[in-house]
Amino acid sequence: MNPIVNTAFAALISFLSLCFAVYTGLKGNKRTDTKDIEERAKENAKINFKLDEISGTTRDIKNDISSMRDDIREHNNKIIELESDVKQMEKRIDNLEARVDRKEDA
Questions:
Q1: Stated pTM of the model
Q2: Cα-based distances in Å from 7 to 12, 16, 18
Q3: Running DSSP on this structure, what letter comes out for residue 7?
Q4: Using one digit for the tens of pLDDT, what is the confidence trace for 65-101?
């Protein structure tokens, strides 16, 4: 064989090898990108699920707090009524004591 043909043949083989290496590298890179995208999607799904759980828990807490506020309002109203009743009872007791004192003096 001719040395020029040998050189051309070697160059052709080198070029084809280079093309194959580039193709293989790009194809492998696409697989890695696809796997990375899948992993990110899974992580994002987990994060979204956890955020939904936190959101639900927060809503439950808000509802509990609202319910507690209503209970506190009811208790405050009952306390106000009881204080009023206690004042009336104190006045009645004072009136009864005054009557007893008047009868003892007479």
A1: 0.51
A2: 9, 14, 16
A3: H
A4: 999 999 999 999 999 999 999 999 999 999 999 998 8
In degrees rounded to 5, what are phi and psi of residue 28?
A: -65, -35
- Read off the tokens for 19: 């093309």
Pick the closest to residue 95 from 87, 79, 82 (CA basis): 87
What is the C-alpha end-to-end distance of the chain, expressed in Å? 153
Which amino acid would we find at residue 23? Y
Phi-psi region of 70 (alpha: psi -120 to 50; beta: other; left: phi over 0): alpha
Q: How far apart are CA 6 and CA 12, in angstroms?
A: 10
DSSP track, 19-60 = HHHHHHHHHHHHHHHHHHHHHHHHHHHHHHHHHHHHHHHHHH
Cα 48 to Cα 42: distance, rounded to the nearest angstrom = 10
